[in-house]
């Protein structure tokens, strides 16, 4: 059996009781470690589980899935995923390959940022499609997120923006020379995300949002160190929410007064918050 | 401290290790039991936790929140919610009241149907806003869900339809006479949901979807007894997916070939599936 087990969002104790039981008795335990991270390291997990954990990087999962699935017809293999196994990213390929090999599959769900973002006080019913923001480079500034946000904005919905993480990435030079040397990990911040959003609005000028549009920055959601900051995109582009992981929600115009009451408590500046609320979000 | 603790979706072992530790040491433990249910009963939870659990029905939460919050400034109160505490429904009111009383709050996230629905193989990035479907009566057939689905359809997105549950409801007669007598619980099925959707399309005729539009019916998501059925709305309106809880996803036109490969394995009838796929979902 292939078990896809969600680890939740923050630390080693966010695994479910059911998930932990399977981890303890599985033949092998893999940790998917390239689409998201917990706020604790592999060693912490290993000591909590009382056993070894094998790191599965992108290469292993995408080209070496048969190694992961070896003997899974008879034995239990645990594949650990931060968040929910089918959350912000999916492991459809691995499951399809397991199906081909007639390996039974079970997934153990857990918290995902897609639902835990509800702890901002914004109603999950009011969210449109989720978008991703990658690190811009000098010559790669993909703006497809802008078109998606535009669709959400056109029907008044909030947009959750998930931000890039770079783990075990090679520099172009090292890649070109075939050197397996990796860059230190990088995690996008709310400030970088807000800046890139404003940069693209400035370029495309379709008035999807503005520097004084309201958004909520969220850091370390689901942990004791969770921090929320609500403000204009301009304010958030200068806010420091501390260590990763971050995400951002752009407010939709359908925002409700109850949502306002909730998020105003995290306002960077209540005056600018109230001004923007009145300008854009106060319904007819 | 007020702890809002998600229980996940299926049984008593879906609580997180962190959540269970708090339940074991809290002063009082409440179970919110009117917006969703686990697939196990209160007694099972109590024996797993080794302690009593107080059922909090709608009345208690909406009008008696100060009883729940009593002494929470000094003592730990656990408020258990099926799914994620801020998932399909929110307990914003309770949190706002706790804030007024200067009670610190922490939420322990868990799986929600909003992310666990990813186990259908449909990409969560391709979902628009979530809608709710209530039981129609002879003179109450609210169709606001139809307008919301129309918005999602217009931009090619999937729609998750959460279906009604009726727990501890009074009949109109008993309510009028002030008799606290409650009806047996009722849980909407995928078949009822698909039928009501077709009924409203038939009435409004805005061609938001059709009898041969594709959808995925999901039952008992996150449990070992999870069952998925993919088919036309017409087929699903006659499908029997067994015991609750059910939900349904209407496919958006932006559906990807990888999603098709995944869900075709659950097709009620591969022939009608392929025909509808070709008709509506095969991109240019």
UniProtKB/TrEMBL annotation, chains A, B:
Residues 1-236 form the Tetrapyrrole methylase domain. Its EC number is 2.1.1.314. Pathway: Protein modification; peptidyl-diphthamide biosynthesis. The keyword Magnesium does not apply. The keyword Signal does not apply. It is an enzyme of class 2 (transferase). It comes from the Eukaryota. One of its GO terms (biological process) is protein histidyl modification to diphthamide. Keywords: Methyltransferase, S-adenosyl-L-methionine, Transferase. Pfam families: TP_methylase. Belongs to the diphthine synthase family. PANTHER family: DIPHTHINE METHYL ESTER SYNTHASE, DIPHTHINE SYNTHASE. S-adenosyl-L-methionine-dependent methyltransferase that catalyzes four methylations of the modified target histidine residue in translation elongation factor 2 (EF-2), to form an intermediate called diphthine methyl ester. The four successive methylation reactions represent the second step of diphthamide biosynthesis. This is Diphthine methyl ester synthase.
């Amino acid at each position: 059996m292939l078990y896809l087990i969600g680890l939740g969002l923050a630390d080693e104790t966010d695994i479910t009781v059911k998930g932990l039981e399977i981890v303890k008795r599985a033949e092998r335990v893999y940790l998917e470690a390239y689409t998201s991270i917990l706020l604790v390291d592999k060693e912490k997990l290993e000591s909590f589980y009382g056993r070894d954990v094998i790191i599965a990087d992108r290469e292993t999962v995408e080209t070496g899935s048969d190694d992961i699935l070896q003997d899974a017809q008879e034995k239990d293999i645990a594949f650990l995923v931060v968040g929910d196994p089918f959350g912000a990213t999916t492991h459809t390929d691995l499951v399809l390959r397991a199906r081909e090999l007639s390996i039974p599959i079970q997934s153990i769900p857990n918290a995902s940022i897609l639902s835990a973002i509800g702890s901002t006080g914004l109603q999950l019913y009011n969210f449109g499609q989720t978008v991703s923001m990658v690190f811009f480079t000098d010559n790669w500034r993909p703006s497809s997120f802008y078109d998606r946000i535009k669709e959400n904005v056109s029907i008044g919905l909030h947009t959750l923006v998930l931000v890039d993480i770079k783990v075990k990435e090679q520099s172009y030079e090292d890649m070109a020379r075939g050197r397996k040397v990796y860059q230190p990990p990088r995690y996008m911040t709310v400030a970088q995300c807000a800046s890139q959003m404003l940069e693209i609005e400035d370029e495309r000028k379709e008035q999807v949002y503005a520097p004084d549009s309201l958004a909520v920055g969220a850091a370390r959601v689901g942990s004791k160190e969770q921090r929320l900051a609500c403000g204009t995109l301009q304010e958030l582009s200068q806010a420091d929410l501390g260590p990763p992981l971050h995400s951002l929600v752009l407010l939709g115009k359908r925002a409700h007064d109850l949502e306002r009451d909730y998020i105003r408590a995290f306002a960077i500046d209540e005056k600018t918050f109230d001004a923007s609320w009145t300008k854009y979000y106060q319904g007819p």
